[in-house]
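On clarity, I found the account of how folds are encoded harder to follow than it need be. Since the whole study asks how a given chain folds, the encoding of that fold should be made plain. For illustration, here is how one protein appears when written out as sequence plus structure tokens:
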Amino acid sequence: MTPVDPAYLPVSAFDVPRFAGLATVMRLPVRTAAAPDGAEIGFLGIPFDGGTTNRPGARHGPRAVRDASTMIRMVNQATAAAPFHTARAADFGDAQVNLADLTHTLTLIEAQTAALRAGGVVPLLIGGDHLITLPALRAARAAADGPLGLVHFDAHTDLFDSYFGGMRYTHGTPFRRAVEEGLLDPKRMIQIGIRGTTYDGEDRAFAAANGIRIVTIEEFRERGPKDVMAEARNVVGSAPTYLSFDIDALDPTIAPGTGTPEIGGLTAYEAQVMLRALDGVDIVAGDLVEVAPGLDPAGGTAWHGASILFEMLCVVAAATARRKGREPVLCANLKGA
């Protein structure tokens, strides 16, 4: 494989043990928005969980996912995708947040995500609770010609109007706000894995009224990953699309470290298969959210998060390369195997 730039390859465990050195995302080089130095994809931690309505702790997600991600290697053995050779990725550290002021934090996240975009960098955010998606979408919409599509894996719709007597900005409301603000095209939105007990169906009514496609876990089980993802690709089409993965989409038996777990979720393998099916979709940004490592002392949730993040990187790197007129790099030793 010929890398895009050798400086952007992760440190190999053949050279330095995974437990040694700086714990950057997937052992990538560190860059800053002020000096992206040619980076095309930027991991940005968002250590904020001020939108949480249940169990807190996702503010510690970026650090835990970073540490777990040192286990990631160069190539996706299932698809032969070589994301680090396909596009130049780097760790841009953590965003500045204001834990005492939610509104200020939303402004900060939007500005810092926009700064990455201004430097030609595709943001991949590590949360943090799901409210962080809203300012990321604001920045993405500002750089796009129109509202974005959305592929969203979650146990919850996050389409509620408000909590606690009028609080409109929580991790249960970001996609409601995003539709209202014109950031997302509701007819190009699909939410996969929705399950659990609910309130009064107000979120489902909003989805139905606006044309948002919800695939419950029950429907997913009947149809399977291949059929559901064929529909997802059809829903978002060829226009720019945002990818959001809430770790509570996974079953809590394998990913218990999250604020609002729901039984009966996706397996890790099902999530991998579905993310791989997004190859070819024009994904312009994404996030992994709601990893709360303190609720899983064994560290399994962070490891699942890092592994999901790698699958996301594979399809984002391919989309980034294609937008620049390059073909994604495959590992010749695995291609066709």
Summary: The domain at 6-323 is CATH 3.40.800.10 (Arginase; Chain A). The chain has one domain: 6-323. Residues 4 and 249 are 33 Å apart (CA to CA).
